[in-house]
Every structure is written in C-alpha cells, then in structure tokens.
Design a protein that fits this description.
- The structure is a single chain.
- With about 110 residues, this protein is α+β, with helices and mostly antiparallel strands.
- The protein has a domain of about 80 residues: Winged helix-like DNA-binding domain superfamily/Winged helix DNA-binding domain (Arc Repressor Mutant, subunit A, Orthogonal Bundle).
- It has a three-stranded antiparallel sheet with strand order 1-3-2.
C-alpha cells in the first residue's frame, strides 16, 4: 500500500494542521509544551512546573502524545517526555511570544484599508 504525500494545499493537509492546533489548544497542554522547550522532563517535574495534579497532567500528556506532539521514553520506571520536533518547538515559542508582545489589535497596519 502506497501512501500519498498531501498536496501543498490539500484538504488533508489543512485537516491535519487543524488537528495539530486543536491538540495544542488548551492552556495546560500549552504550558506542558512550554515547560518542555528547555528539554525532556518527567511527569513529576511537569506537575511541579504547571501546578496541576498528576492525573490531569498525565491526561493531557496522553492527548499530546496521541497527536504526535510528544514522545515518551522510559528510564527505569520513570516516563520522560520530549517535544517531537523543531516545528512544534517553534509553534509553541511563536504562540507564547505573540501574546507576550503587542497583539494584532495594537497593529496599526490591520486598520488600513
């Protein structure tokens, strides 16, 4: 069975892109991803960083893994999570930087006709 690469502007490409953004579209999941920008972390570190409970962090880690945004490696009994690739890294950085700096509502070019 051969798999076809999505065409540059195919419906499948947009669907997959929307699924990726949906998986990131929760404050705790974005916080987890941001915590992983500096490198892999185990669950208890993510719990400590986010302030969320371990079951809640684990639930969101599963969603991020299912969307292929994270990978999980085992070190003994501990699960270590990391961002899968630089694309995800950049999306997280850009999303956080976007809201940290001037928002689009402050951009005078958006009001030009």
């Amino acid at each position: 069975m051969t798999t076809e690469t999505p065409k540059p502007h195919s419906d499948e490409m947009f669907e997959r892109g929307a699924d990726l953004l949906k998986a990131m579209a929760h404050p705790l999941r974005l916080a987890v991803l941001a915590a992983l920008l500096d490198g892999p972390r185990c669950v208890h570190e993510l719990v400590e960083t986010t302030g969320a409970t371990q079951p809640l962090v684990s639930q969101h880690l599963r969603i991020l893994r299912d969307a292929d945004l994270l990978r999980r490696d085992r070190r003994g009994r501990e699960a270590i999570y990391a961002i899968t690739d630089d694309h995800i890294h950049h999306i997280v950085i850009d999303a956080v930087d976007h809201v940290r700096t001037e928002g689009p509502h402050d951009d005078p070019h958006l009001h030009e006709a």
